[in-house]
Design brief:
By secondary structure, this protein is of the alpha/beta class. It has seven helices and seven strands.
């Protein structure tokens, strides 16, 4: 399966359009995955980097002992996240920053865990993004992802292929094969897969937990 290429401008333009309606469009369908990922992060605790924080939908799900820094490429999305933090009085959110997930401006081993909800289908280079996540997490720390994994055959694969031609407008890739993540893990001697399981609704998304050895 091939995947459609995305550029930074594709992503920024798409999410400037999505920002005003993002929560209404995606909060419910992506809610179970965010809850599962946040629960995994809460078990780790410490300083956490949230890559692709968007409008901050998962921010209220983190326990008070989790100190969160969130980054996103989209300023309009981050503006909503800032308002959410202020409205809910979330004192454990340390910073919300405009930043490229493929070039994180943090020293190596800065965080106890990294969470990336629904981000790998959005970034231009998923492998480079995973490399950056692995770089900034401490040895023994976890990387927790929630992602759509594309179908390999059948009517769903046909629909995803049709949507894939519109990825530049959507701002994400509907076609996203597991080997993008699986092969990356296999190439890394310092990364081990801890968990891979489907999450609701309708097994549409997959929770992935990895540890940096």
């Amino acid at each position: 399966m091939t995947t459609t290429s995305l550029s930074h401008s594709d992503v920024e333009d798409a999410y400037a359009r999505w920002a005003p309606v993002y929560d209404a469009a995606f909060a419910a369908v992506m809610g179970p995955g965010r809850k599962a990922a946040a629960a995994a992060i809460n078990r780790v605790g410490g300083r956490v980097l949230d890559v692709g924080i968007g409008t901050g939908l998962e921010l209220p799900l983190f326990a008070d002992h989790v100190k969160v820094t969130g980054i996103d490429l989209s300023e309009p999305m981050l503006e909503i996240a800032h308002r959410r933090v202020a409205d809910l009085g979330l004192s454990n959110i340390e910073a919300l920053l405009v930043m490229d997930a493929m070039s994180l401006n943090f020293p190596a081993a800065s965080f106890d865990a990294v969470i990336g909800p629904y981000v790998l289908t959005v970034v231009p280079d998923p492998g480079r993004t995973l490399d950056e996540m692995a770089r900034v997490v401490k040895p023994g720390g976890e990387i927790v992802l929630v992602n759509h994994i594309g179908a390999t055959k059948g009517p769903v694969a046909t629909i995803e292929a049709w949507l894939g031609k519109r990825a530049h407008k959507l701002g994400w890739r509907p076609q996203f094969p597991w080997p993008i993540i699986g092969d990356w893990i296999d190439r890394r001697d310092d990364i081990e897969l801890l968990e891979r399981r489907d999450v609701a609704p309708a097994r549409l998304f997959t929770l992935i937990r990895m540890r940096r050895k």
